[in-house]
Amino acid sequence: MGCGLSTPKTAQAQPARLQTGSLVAHGSLRVVKPLGEGSWSDVYLVERMKDGRSYALKRTLISELSEAERWIAVNELRLLASLNHPNVVNYKQGFVEDNCLFVIMEVVPNGDLSKVIEQHRRRETRISEDHIWSYLLQMALGLQHLHASGIVHRDIKPANILVGRDGVLKIADLGVAGLLHMGSSKLQIGTPQYMAPEMHAGHAYGYSADVWSLACLLYELCALEPLFQDCDEEVVARKVLATVLPPAIPAKYSPELQILLNRMMQHDSELRPSIDEVLASPQLMSRMQLLPAELEASLSVSLDCMEGLPVLPAIDIPADLHDLNTRLPPPRFSSDNLASEGALEMAARFGAPAVVVPLPAVAQQQPQPGQLQRQRQEHGGAAAQPAAPQQQQQQRQQQPFPEQAAGSDAPPYLPRVGSPVTVLEETLCTAASESTVATPSAGHGTGGSGSIIDACVAAALEDERSAAAERSAATAARKAAAAAVWSKAAAQRQQHLQQQKQLRLLEGAAI
């Protein structure tokens, strides 16, 4: 326990601990008490002065970190801000202050699964099977959301699964998580005791690596000890690579748990079930009623907000760390429903398709197909000179975003990185400028650069519409599948409640 290697921590200097009652974020947060600390970060319970609500504040001394460690810290913030699921810890805001990166998240008050396991080990008691099935269901649902967003966690373990109110679990610590490109990765990162065989062997891996890690966690919940125990990473790797089938779990538990565990721990990643197949297994489908009832409303909100929220692109870290404030995603405080928080506008600024979100005012001012050609003909071959790039940037900064106009917490001048709208805008302006210089007189523009621009506009918009249609179809399929799972869970829960009611009535009649 605690011997797992993850990522190197080179930070030497430690910032002074925040004192109870002190204010941070320009006086908008009051520190209530410390919650924990690590090698290069600490976590505090804070109260937000604006609404009086409690949040968790993670502080990382980013100025003392290596370039790779800075990327890990910012990557976790970026991925958290991209996700919206009741079984994934919820992002609220990120900012840089006093050479530290702060991330505000929801409070998850009851520790993590490693503490649950340790408590049962000390008391020499087993975790009830119903609780284990409930934990497995929730972790699988959270992973399903990550995988549907193209994210592989890479470090699923008890310490990274937080326990909230009423037994609701939250997947946390996405620092080493990443997007899968072309379906696999070879980056070796994570905690050795929970890493899949293909990761230890240095082979390409995919989402099924998370399924193996989840199986290791499932075994630990049953046995109250890790499946692969050793502080030597090479010894752990040899044990993992030599595993054919996991050992038997305690006889207290049903054979169904062992059957599912065996399936999830297939040594060959191609034979391992996907997280969707795990959730669709008879063992889990028959126990959906064990999910906390509090998840029903949250999951409904999550399904409604899946569409139009792509994972935010990578954030470049500037030399002056305080400039990072202008590149971080905007705050998300008003409610748990992203649709009412300006999140669609956020997605638009960070790369969402224009067909999902209305074009910003700057983009709406772009020349329409054929407009440049008509201007040349009407003005003797000279189209209106476009604004210089610096002037365009000033105009863009002077144009307030919807959240700023409403007086919300959104930081000013968020970047517009790589969205189809931005690329199209810059291409049009460049082409228009070149065509103005190259067209000496009227009558020479017909069928020339104006037609090329029109064709480029049409082709770009058509490509964007096709890509948006594919994304919409994929999202609809995921939502339908998730809705079917939840519908069955609700029906099973209702049936379970009816059975309990009838049982109580029979017990009362017997008395």
From TrEMBL:
Residues in Protein kinase domain copies: 29-284
Domain of life: Eukaryota
Reactions performed catalytically: L-threonyl-[protein] + ATP = O-phospho-L-threonyl-[protein] + ADP + H(+); L-seryl-[protein] + ATP = O-phospho-L-seryl-[protein] + ADP + H(+)
SMART domains: S_TKc
Composition bias, Low complexity: 365-374, 382-406
Gene Ontology MF terms: ATP binding; protein serine/threonine kinase activity
Claim: Zinc is one of the keywords in the record: no
Chain spans, region Disordered: 365-417
Key words of the record: ATP-binding, Kinase, Nucleotide-binding, Serine/threonine-protein kinase, Transferase
Descriptive protein name: non-specific serine/threonine protein kinase
Organism for this UniProt entry: Micractinium conductrix
EC number in record: 2.7.11.1
Main EC class the enzyme belongs to: transferase
